[in-house]
Amino acid sequence: MAGTTNGLAPDGLPKGFRSAELGWPELHRIPRPPYRLPLLGDVVGASRSTPMQDSLRYARRLGPIFRRRAFGNEFVFVWGAGLAADLADEERFAKHVGLGVANLRPVAGDGLFTAYNHEPNWQLAHDVLAPGFSREAMAGYHVMMLDVAARLTDHWDRAGAAGRTVDVPGDMTKLTLETIARTGFGHDFGSFERSRPHPFVTAMVGTLTYAQRLNTVPAPLAPWLLRGASRRNTADIDHLNRTVDDLVRARRAAGGRGGTGDLLDRMLETAHPETGERLSPENVRRQVITFLVAGHETTSGALSFALHYLAQHPGIAARARAEVDRVWGDTEAPGYEQVAKLRYVRRVLDESLRLWPTAPAFAREARTDTVLGGSYPMRRGAWALVLAGMLHRDPQVWGPDAEEFDPDRFDAKAVRSRAPHTFKPFGTGARACIGRQFALHEATLVLGLLLRRYELRPEPEYRLRVTERLTLMPEGLRLRLERRAGSGRAGTGPDRAAVAEDAASAPRCPVPRADD
């Protein structure tokens, strides 16, 4: 497990992992699995490779709050809608950096995703970078998103013409990596020109997988049990650092982009509007790694799950495709404002994120002594892991068919009728995903382009399997493509004059946080 208690942090809370006994005075009242082994804990029937899916199975048996013990450490899990809404209260609870997230700190340090609440660089970076996700900035990114999508469709056209199936997770990873690299950092990894994943992706997957494996072995034994994996992880981190250092060095040598404002430009040249502080070189590296990893890993998973469900539900795909044809018409490349008009396509994406939120859980800790849901006392610093994947399947919220794929759960009337804080694919509160609108725009645009260009055919024998590396991804998903008649106009590259005019006319406004 991720560390043990070792002194106090500047906020007065214990450092390192905090077992539930330290913060839940009435822990015995919380249900647990029936078969608990001495020393090992609740490991009967558990899988080291699919711990999140294991937790979903326990959740169905044990109810809206439960606990599990592994190697001497106790964990509390929450998924009931009322309890999750209580944990979303920003006055009483805050983000908790624990489990696999803390295991990423050797590479991401105090970046936006992995910073502890007491670390000042989180707020500094957030305030400096938030304008990079304004509506005006998003409209500027749209042109580059179209360019990268055209590289994907060229790749898929060749595969379809040759009668080959396409590797959906692999190609979505290439797409989203190139998109965040180009829009945020002016860099091209050349992913679609490679027969194998870019070494950056290989290193990234290695660090995520290692972070999860650390949670499956006793902390004192990790140096021995994971000796080889630890050496590979060190090499992976070195590769990520070198890649980012080269990227930053090239930007500095070029004298920046003259204040045009991509994310790297902001990191290097922008001071905090109130304090005048700037990000340190070390923190710039950590933020770039954070965005390159988080900015493409979760979006690629969301797109992959959505494409799986579209292929499995041809009636839903036809309805979504009809919307694309109606809204976009004969436009060679959709403008920025046209993407938000794909309301049903967006519902498909949201429903995919409901069933398989690619960031499947988030942790919350008590800011002060409190009582969760009026029933469970928590001391300051006590934390719980919110299982978004089970929160999104709560039958009291989503109905008896909560396991079924139905995009109409997200029509406007249905959304208004649901209680807040029941759909949380991007976390919650002040530290919810800063790139939420970026990911949603990119994914909706790409789904629209692919639906307009192809009929998606599943492999008949395929059954959804989900691989876990902190994030979730369909495993082994391949689709067969059929070009639609008259679809040559789609994905062939943007009409730059029209897109630029659309971007220039987009109003300025901040991006909302995913905190309902």
From TrEMBL:
SUPFAM superfamilies: Cytochrome P450. GO terms for molecular function: heme binding; iron ion binding; monooxygenase activity; oxidoreductase activity, acting on paired donors, with incorporation or reduction of molecular oxygen. The keyword Cell cycle does not apply. Its cofactor is heme; FMN; FAD. Residues 483-516 are annotated as: Disordered. Heme binds at C433. The keyword Heme applies. This is Putative cytochrome P450. It comes from Streptomyces ambofaciens (strain ATCC 23877 / 3486 / DSM 40053 / JCM 4204 / NBRC 12836 / NRRL B-2516).
